[in-house]
C-alpha cells in the first residue's frame, strides 16, 4: 500500500509518482496488506484482474436474526461452553429451562427458590441419589440447598435469571411480575392501578431471560410450541 499516486498494471508492475517531498525524503515506505485484509476484500469485492466489474454479491453479508439470537445467548454464558454444558446437559436445569419456556401461565416463566429446590430434590431422588443426615455424608439437603443457591446466584449474575417479585393484587387478584427496578415499598398494579404493599414474606421470583426462552423455542401463531433450531446448534457446539 502506497500513500501516494500509484498503480499496479495487468502484469503486476508497480508504478508511482515521485513528488518533490518524496524525493526530498529519499525514503519510500511500502506496506504489504495483511492476509486477513486481503481475504476480506477478496470475499466482499472479488474482481478479475483487468476487469472493471466488481462482483460484490457478498458485500451485504450479515448475521441472520437466528444467528444474532444465538450469539447473544452464548454471550450470556461468557461464550464458555463448559459453563453452558453444566446447565444444558443437566437434566434438572434443562427440564427447568424448558418448563419455564413452555409454561402457559401468566407468571409461568418465573420460579421461586423453594419450588426450584423441591424440583431438583425430586429429580435427584428419581435418578437414585440417596440423601443422608448432615453428619453422615456430603449428600444432604443442606448441601443441596447451598449448591443450588450458588448456581442461582451465578445465573443471576449472568442475567440468565432476572430476580423480581410476583405480586398478587389485593384489588383485582392479578398475579403480575415486577422486576427489581420496579420494586418499591408500594406497588401500583399494572392491571387496575390499585396500590399494594410489598409483603414481608414475598419470596424472590426468578424470571428466565427471554433470550434463553427464544433459543429454546417459541409459540407459533396457532399457539403450538415450536422448538428452536438454535438449541440443536448449541448442543452440537458443546459436543465439538
Ligand atoms: Zn390490580
Automatic annotation (TrEMBL):
Listed name of the protein: Uncharacterized protein
UniProt source species: Pedobacter lithocola
Amino acid at each position: 500500500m502506497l500513500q501516494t499516486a500509484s498503480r499496479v498494471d495487468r502484469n503486476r508492475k508497480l508504478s508511482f509518482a515521485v513528488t518533490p517531498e518524496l524525493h526530498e525524503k529519499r525514503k519510500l515506505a511500502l506496506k504489504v496488506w495483511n492476509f486477513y485484509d486481503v481475504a476480506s476484500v477478496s470475499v466482499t469485492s472479488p474482481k478479475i484482474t483487468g476487469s472493471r466489474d466488481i462482483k460484490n454479491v457478498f458485500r451485504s453479508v450479515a448475521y441472520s436474526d437466528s444467528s444474532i439470537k444465538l450469539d447473544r445467548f452464548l454471550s450470556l454464558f461468557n461464550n464458555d461452553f463448559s459453563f453452558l454444558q453444566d446447565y444444558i446437559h443437566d437434566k434438572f436445569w434443562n427440564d427447568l429451562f424448558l418448563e419455564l419456556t413452555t409454561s402457559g401461565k401468566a407468571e409461568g416463566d418465573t420460579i421461586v427458590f423453594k419450588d426450584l429446590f423441591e424440583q431438583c430434590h425430586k429429580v435427584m431422588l428419581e435418578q437414585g441419589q440417596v440423601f443422608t443426615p448432615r453428619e453422615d455424608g456430603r449428600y444432604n439437603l443442606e448441601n443441596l440447598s447451598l449448591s443450588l443457591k450458588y448456581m442461582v446466584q451465578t445465573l443471576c449474575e449472568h442475567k440468565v435469571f432476572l430476580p423480581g417479585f410476583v405480586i398478587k393484587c389485593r384489588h383485582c387478584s392479578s398475579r403480575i411480575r415486577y422486576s427489581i427496578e420496579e420494586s418499591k415499598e408500594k406497588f401500583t398494579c399494572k392491571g387496575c392501578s390499585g396500590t399494594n404493599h410489598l409483603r414481608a414474606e414475598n419470596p424472590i421470583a426468578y424470571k428466565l431471560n427471554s433470550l434463553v426462552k427464544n433459543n429454546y423455542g417459541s409459540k407459533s401463531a396457532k399457539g403450538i410450541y415450536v422448538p428452536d433450531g438454535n438449541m440443536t446448534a448449541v448442543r452440537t457446539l458443546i459436543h465439538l
